[in-house]
């Protein structure tokens, strides 16, 4: 190739690349409305975006992988947690952990109920944006869980006692106690702790299946003909799974043998009725 040919090749390649770039840019702009669900941007969503910025949430959290990486990415949070959980958490994060023991530093923002609802609406809009699978994996935070915690009496269900012994007396609850927050503590500190076998991260199966998407899977199961238990709704199924795990065994699953679930069947007597109610409230918040 002589100099003239090389020059023509360079010019031609530049023109082709420029045309391709402009074409892809125009095509992207053509699809932005559909990919971002622009028609779903309501005044409440806009208010939620303003709440997000006003409280500098991005200083700790990330959206679409962009942010401070100090706290979890919230791009798909409303796909994983229900409105009741998110509302209770934003009202008072300290109900869900002990800052002195677990060093979770989510501050109490003291935002109004209207702002909380708007922020959830904004995060729900974000979760429905077609982000082409980005970020490629959940961004988790070390120390985000605290298995074995004995933060409060309800959270210490069964901790440190011999199997078959009487459950501890539950402390009186107050109007400030949130059943979802208390249920999460039971989830992390019952004996044996649910976190020893179950993850709440999508696709992370341990000794037991992940509980991410539990409500959606349960609804599908109850609507079909394969369910063998006695529950008629999601709450009832989760309660049955906690108290009588072998009432329904998923066919062919690796978590059972000879019709018996590998999950302990002692929670019904080791947890108090209040603790079971709290645990069910927490588990039904896992969408």
Q: Can you lay out the helices and strands and say which pair or pack?
A:
Blueprint: H1 3-35, H2 43-54, E1 62-63, E2 66-67, H3 77-80, H4 83-91, H5 99-102, H6 113-127, H7 179-189, H8 214-223, H9 234-243, E3 256-257, E4 260-261, H10 267-270, H11 273-283
Antiparallel strand pairs: 1-2, 3-4
Helix pairs in contact: 2-6, 4-6, 7-11, 9-11
Pfam family, one: Cytochrom_C
Domain Cytochrome c: 43-127, 178-287
Transmembrane segments: 6-26
Keywords:
Cytochrome Bc1 Complex, Chain D, domain 2, membrane, two-stranded antiparallel sheet, 287 residues, extended, mainly alpha, metal ion binding, transmembrane, electron transfer activity, 11 helices
Summarize the structure.
By secondary structure, this protein is mainly alpha-helical. The protein has eleven helices and four strands; from the N terminus they run ααββαααααααββαα.
């Amino acid at each position: 190739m002589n100099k003239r040919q090389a020059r023509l090749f360079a010019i031609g390649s530049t023109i082709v690349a420029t045309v391709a770039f402009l074409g892809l840019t125009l095509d992207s702009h053509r699809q932005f409305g559909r990919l971002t669900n622009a028609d779903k941007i309501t005044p409440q969503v806009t208010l939620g975006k303003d709440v997000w910025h006003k409280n500098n949430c991005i200083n700790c959290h990330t959206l679409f992988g962009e942010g401070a990486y100090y706290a979890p990415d919230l791009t798909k949070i409303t796909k994983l947690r229900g409105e009741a959980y998110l509302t209770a958490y934003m009202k008072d994060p300290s109900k869900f952990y002990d800052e002195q023991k677990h060093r979770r530093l989510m501050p109490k923002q003291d935002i109004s109920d209207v702002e909380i609802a708007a922020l959830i609406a904004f995060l729900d809009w974000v979760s429905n944006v077609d982000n082409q699978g980005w970020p490629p994996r959940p961004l988790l935070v070390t120390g985000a869980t605290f298995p074995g915690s004995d933060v409060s009496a309800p959270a210490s269900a069964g901790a440190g006692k011999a199997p078959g012994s009487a459950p501890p007396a539950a402390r009186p609850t107050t109007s400030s106690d949130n059943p979802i927050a208390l249920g999460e503590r039971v989830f992390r500190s019952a004996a044996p702790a649910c976190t020893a076998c179950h993850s709440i991260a999508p696709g992370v199966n341990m000794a037991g299946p992940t509980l991410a998407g539990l409500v959606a899977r349960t609804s599908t199961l109850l609507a079909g003909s394969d369910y063998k238990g006695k529950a008629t709704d999601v709450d009832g199924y989760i309660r049955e799974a906690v108290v009588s795990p072998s009432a329904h065994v998923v066919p062919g699953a690796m978590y059972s043998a000879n019709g018996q679930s590998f999950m302990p069947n002692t929670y019904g007597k080791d947890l108090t009725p209040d603790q079971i109610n709290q645990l069910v409230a927490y588990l039904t918040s896992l969408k």
